[in-house]
Amino acid sequence: MALYWTFGSLPELNHLSERERHHVLRTCAGPTVYFRLIRTAIFYGLATAAICLTIVSRYVPRDTTLIVSGIAAVLTVIVSYQFCMRIIRAHLRLTLINGFRGERLPICLGCGYDLKGIEGDECPECGKGVVVREEEHHTLNRK
Ligand SMILES: [Zn+2]
Question: What is the DSSP code (8-state) at residue 109?
Answer without folding.
Answer: T
